[in-house]
Amino acid sequence: MSRKVDETAVVAGADSTTERSITVTVNGERFERTVSVRKSLVDFVREDLRLTGSHVGCEHGVCGACTVLVDDEPVRACLMLAVQANGKVLMTVEGIAGEDDELHPVQQAFWENHGLQCGFCTPGILLTTYDFLQEKKNPTSGEIREALSGNVCRCTGYQNIVRSVQAADQEWER
Question: Which domain of life does the protein's organism represent (predicted)?
Fold first, then answer.
């Protein structure tokens, strides 16, 4: 048994379901925007808010380059829709630095210990490290590698990244 679909009703209904109004707080600033229901969170942050620190890598949630914190939890922003962030608090890599753009101890440690090379993966690793070190003091090398296992860096052998996390742990007073 087939049912005839009223195509004008489908088209007319499409306008009301393709965009939504959302309110998010990003790096301490409140934003209200209308977004496509299909727009990823990373595209929203980069395109609509012009915060381009988070990078789009694999678009499958594997590389970690798009990691942001959503309500203090690391999230792959390529897998989350912007509309799912409605009412949430986000932090991007731009939000780590202190007043007057002073580097956060995590950022400073990566700089001083050469924990970055091309920089593509760095924002995701910094946010993952930031979250990890809030919960874990004096992590072992193995714990650091496990915590960062969802972040892919193709430039390094990870030794300087691990060293950077250890240095950040020692310098960051939390």
Answer: Bacteria
Match 């995701």 to its residue by tokens: 124
Question: CB of 57 within 8 A of CB of 63?
Answer: yes
- What homologous superfamily is domain 19-95 in, according to CATH? Beta-grasp domain (3.10.20.30)
Among 3-7, 54-58, 62-66, 151-155, the range scoring the smallest mean pLDDT is: 3-7
Exposed e or buried b for every residue in 32-62, given b needs 16+ CB within 10 A? eeebeeebbbbbbbbeebebebbbbbeeebe
CA distances from residue 13 to 4, 5, 37 in whole angstroms, order as listed = 16, 13, 14
* Residue 34 scores a pLDDT above 80: yes
What does the alpha-carbon distance between residue 13 and residue 17 come to, in Å, rounded to a whole number?
7
**pTM for the predicted model, two decimal places:** 0.86
Domain boundaries, given as residue ranges, for the chain:
19-95, 99-171
In the numeric block, which tokens belong to residue 54?
A: 């988070």
Range 146-157 burial, b when 16+ CB lie within 10 A, else e = ebbebbbbeebe
CATH topology of domain 99-171: DNA polymerase; domain 1 (1.10.150)
